[in-house]
TrEMBL record:
<dbReference type="GO" id="GO:1902201">
    <property type="term" value="P:negative regulation of bacterial-type flagellum-dependent cell motility"/>
</dbReference>
<dbReference type="GO" id="GO:0043709">
    <property type="term" value="P:cell adhesion involved in single-species biofilm formation"/>
</dbReference>
<dbReference type="GO" id="GO:0016301">
    <property type="term" value="F:kinase activity"/>
</dbReference>
<feature type="domain" description="PAS">
    <location>
        <begin position="9"/>
        <end position="79"/>
    </location>
</feature>
<dbReference type="InterPro" id="IPR035965">
    <property type="entry name" value="PAS-like_dom_sf"/>
</dbReference>
<dbReference type="InterPro" id="IPR043128">
    <property type="entry name" value="Rev_trsase/Diguanyl_cyclase"/>
</dbReference>
<dbReference type="InterPro" id="IPR050469">
    <property type="entry name" value="Diguanylate_Cyclase"/>
</dbReference>
<dbReference type="InterPro" id="IPR000160">
    <property type="entry name" value="GGDEF_dom"/>
</dbReference>
<dbReference type="GO" id="GO:0005886">
    <property type="term" value="C:plasma membrane"/>
</dbReference>
<dbReference type="Pfam" id="PF08448">
    <property type="entry name" value="PAS_4"/>
</dbReference>
<dbReference type="InterPro" id="IPR029787">
    <property type="entry name" value="Nucleotide_cyclase"/>
</dbReference>
<feature type="domain" description="GGDEF">
    <location>
        <begin position="185"/>
        <end position="318"/>
    </location>
</feature>
<keyword id="KW-0808">Transferase</keyword>
<dbReference type="Pfam" id="PF00990">
    <property type="entry name" value="GGDEF"/>
</dbReference>
<protein>
    <recommendedName>
        <fullName>diguanylate cyclase</fullName>
        <ecNumber>2.7.7.65</ecNumber>
    </recommendedName>
</protein>
<dbReference type="GO" id="GO:0052621">
    <property type="term" value="F:diguanylate cyclase activity"/>
</dbReference>
<keyword id="KW-0418">Kinase</keyword>
């Protein structure tokens, strides 16, 4: 009776191993296959008779043999399981992904477990490899990360221009100012304003006015360095933070930007529009109390450019009365 129960239990166990939705492979100490379940058959294309007693590394040449052997030998030596997760190693065996919801993934993401299997004598003569398909988990994680990144981008970006919005660029300016206070570096802030923008709006309409703002933002992006931070101040005003830049370098940049916009022509809704910008510059060579003072100085220099006839660049100097 006892033997028949054991045979029945073994039958159930084999049925479970064959039908469970994970890969089950049992390897002997020479890394030859002893057990190969239906999951492995379906994903690998090898029938059990084709896989049995063949080298695991012959069946899966993509496996890092030296690494896998170290993992297995540690399992045997310590007599304890070992695990891999997809975050560290996306897969052990490169199986195609056939899941309908995550069908765009090129391969199956996998977690794995290595279990030591003791014989009747107590010696570990086989190791069981279990492979879990975690493609849904990995895909959902990546989609969530992408969504969070997009939310972060949207929360820091001005919708009309694609430049940083005021809250974000001012936060970066604040951080840069703190760095300046600690390490005594220099930074410059360039502020610019589209000349006669109200006249453009009144003449051509607000849609064309928005196009002029977008065109200005595009030319700013084309002229800044990778390290520069460009943002929209509000309305038709823009700022460009230039870390590790003195007033001379900022003047060169500002003049180049001014000339680029003066030479450009925007064709929109049947109109050919030319316009200019005025610019003001301030840097941190002068004593300051906080980051907002740099904004005030650049704004004062911009006001002088506008008052002096527009389409020009002005550098804030404390002894010149600008911003006083």
């Amino acid at each position: 009776m006892t033997d028949s129960i054991k045979v029945s239990e073994l039958h159930w166990l084999l049925a479970i191993v064959q039908n469970i939705d994970v890969g089950v492979v049992v390897l002997d100490r020479d890394y030859r296959v002893d057990v190969w379940n239906t999951f492995m058959q379906n994903r690998s294309g090898y029938m059990p008779d084709e896989a049995r007693k063949r080298s695991f590394f012959e069946l899966f040449p993509e496996v890092d043999e030296a690494w896998f052997r170290r993992k297995v030998e540690n399992v045997v030596a310590l007599g304890t399981p070992s695990f891999t997760v997809w975050e560290q190693r996306p897969y052990l065996l490169r199986f195609k992904n056939y899941q309908p919801i995550t069908g765009l993934e090129e391969f199956m993401y996998q977690n794995t477990t290595l279990l030591p299997l003791k014989s009747v004598s107590g010696a570990i003569e086989q190791v069981c490899l279990i492979i879990y398909d975690v493609t849904d988990v990995a895909t959902n994680r990546y989609q969530l990360q992408a969504a969070n990144q997009e939310l972060q981008r949207l929360s820091s970006t001005d919708r009309l221009t694609g430049l940083f919005n005021r809250g974000h660029w001012e936060e970066i300016l604040c951080q840069d100012y703190a760095r300046h206070r600690r390490y005594a570096g220099n930074s410059a802030l360039v502020m610019c304003d589209i000349d006669h923008f109200k006249q453009i709006n009144d003449t051509y309409g607000h849609q064309v006015g928005d196009g002029v703002i977008q065109h200005t933002a595009k030319l700013i992006r084309q002229n800044i360095r990778d390290s520069d931070v460009a943002g929209r101040y509000g309305g038709e005003e823009f700022v460009i933070l230039q870390p590790d830049t003195d007033s001379e370098g900022a003047m060169v940049f500002a003049e180049r930007l001014r000339l680029a916009i003066e030479a450009s022509e925007l064709k929109l809704e049947g109109h050919s529009i030319r316009f200019t910008i005025s610019l003001g510059i301030a840097d941190l060579t002068q004593p300051s109390s906080d980051h907002s003072q740099l904004i005030k100085w650049a704004d004062s220099a911009l006001y002088i450019s506008k008052s002096a006839g527009r389409n020009r660049v002005t550098l804030y100097l404390a002894d010149s009365g600008a911003g006083a």
